[in-house]
Design goal:
The structure is a homodimer. Chain A is an all-alpha fold and about 300 residues long. Helix content of chain A is about 70%, strand content about 0%. The first copy, chain A, has 15 helices and 2 strands. Chains A and B meet through helix 2, helix 6, helix 7 and helix 8 of A and helix 2, helix 6, helix 7 and helix 8 of B.
Chain lengths: ~300, ~300
């Protein structure tokens, strides 16, 4: 495994996830066609599959990747996709492009985008309750993912992001860290924790995976804030400059571009230090690569 | 138990559910306040709690109602509430009133309504994965509820209802039955099936509960169609006459009011026949009561 490049490794992992998604998502076959087409469109149009890949990596570290591990990782991607579909809605971030393609509501209409997101979210928990996965493990995965993505996680983060004036934090710095932790980092954290959980890693290692995911997720969001300023629409595949336009609180608007870059570098380094001794040939490389991403 | 009236029985059961919801829903305590307020508003403003009550009834038939049974039944109500919040959105059915109160988006805004629904849906599965419930049972409940409420269930039904021209059915009659089955009856069915499952009823009894719930849910939706025409806004607590206004396919628009009433009566009778021999003092009465409901 260590003889291929990081790029090849990521491509293989992405293929594994994509193959599963394409085969396991409901298929257009005469009933509910447009809804299913919309679900497939939203999931299949792209994405780096970073969250499910992190999940698979932690399964590789502590065990073997089998069908259950791939299913669980793919469920994280379904959940991530639903959040993008709903976040892009006119009442939310109002984005027209995502991954270089029209957003779901631009292509299929607003009602369809709402329903598509609802269906993906529900399907995510449906997949996690699949009989392939041991009941005890399955329940743990559902608990981890629902904790990370509900009101006290991703949805809560999106809420504070939408209504910054409602923030109870004393400083903007503290508020921003909380937005990013809830909105982005908790799902990264859940992905890593789920990967270790499905491999039945010792509890302390599962907690370590969880903590690492949180730090990596924070770095990811810092870099996202930076890319919104320095990248191009072509490279990023979505509208850029929206944070400033929508007067969003981001690492760049709060600290300025230079300081944000330094902070992102420090956060990535912290994440790397947490996993540099783990037996995986690509995890540290993936972190380094993320620090240098342009899309 | 058999000495109290049906009304008293339903009131007791509703209190049990309401008490659980009020105590277990997240509380406003300085973080995420408005989101949590919105979630509590949407759930607590009312409703007859019919779905969770059906769930408790089937637990009573085959076992004892404990904290787990109440939690599972309440999770069904969370899921039902999310569906109302999203269905009321301007891009969907565009309703201003629900249960006599302003709908969530009218009171808190559209973004908040989307997030509130997402949070309730996620919380529903979170509650079902609670450690109080045995893992094997928990997984079954999650599978039942996610099957009934996702693309091939409630969300799918809402989709066909929104886009009737996409229906693949040869006749309108067949299409209508499918809309109502998916949109309404499957969740009733899941509620009954979950109640029997948590009581660890024999498989054939669980299937019977499921089939009964489907029939009862169909009757419920037929009556809903009728009430949209013959009831008043005050009695129903929501806008009336909307089906005709929005040119919806309903039992009344398709068959006319008189025939729709006859069909609803026949459907309720069919449901009653399915449970008249079950050892529960209120289930048949509840069905009869439903046939005569005015709200």
């Amino acid at each position: 495994m260590s003889e291929i490049t990081l790029k090849q490794y990521l491509s293989n992992q992405k293929n594994t996830i994509d193959k599963f998604l394409i085969s396991e998502l409901p298929k257009v076959r005469g009933l509910l066609d447009k809804l299913i087409e919309t679900m497939r469109y939203s999931v299949i149009i792209g994405g780096k599959r970073l969250r499910p890949i992190l999940s698979l990596i932690f399964t590789e570290i502590y065990g073997n990747v089998n069908e259950s591990a791939i299913r669980a990782a793919s469920a994280v991607e379904l959940l991530h996709t639903y959040s993008l579909v709903h976040d892009d809605l006119p009442a939310m971030d109002n984005d027209d492009y995502r991954r270089g393609e029209l957003t779901v509501h631009k292509k299929y209409g607003e009602a369809m985008a709402i329903l598509c997101g609802d269906a993906l979210l529900t399907l995510s928990f449906n997949w996690l309750s699949h009989q392939d996965i041991k009941p005890e493990t399955s329940i743990k995965l559902i608990r981890i993912l629902s904790d990370a993505s509900g009101y006290s996680g991703m949805v809560g983060g999106q809420y504070i992001d939408m209504y910054p004036d409602e923030m109870p934090f004393e400083t903007k710095e503290e508020g921003l860290l909380n937005i990013h932790k809830l909105k982005t980092a908790k799902l990264f954290s859940a992905a890593c924790e789920m990967g270790a959980t499905i491999a039945e890693a010792p509890e302390k290692d599962i907690m370590h995976a969880k903590n690492f995911g949180l730090e990596l997720g924070l770095s990811f969001q810092m870099i996202d804030d930076i890319l919104d300023v320095i990248s191009t629409k072509e490279e990023l595949g979505k509208s850029i400059g929206k944070d400033k336009e929508q007067d969003k609180l981001t690492f760049v608007t709060l600290y300025g571009l230079d300081k944000a870059k330094v902070m992102a570098g420090e956060s990535i380094q912290k994440a790397i230090n947490m996993v540099k001794d783990l037996p995986h040939p690509y995890l540290v490389k993936l972190c380094e690569d993320m620090a240098n991403r342009t899309s």
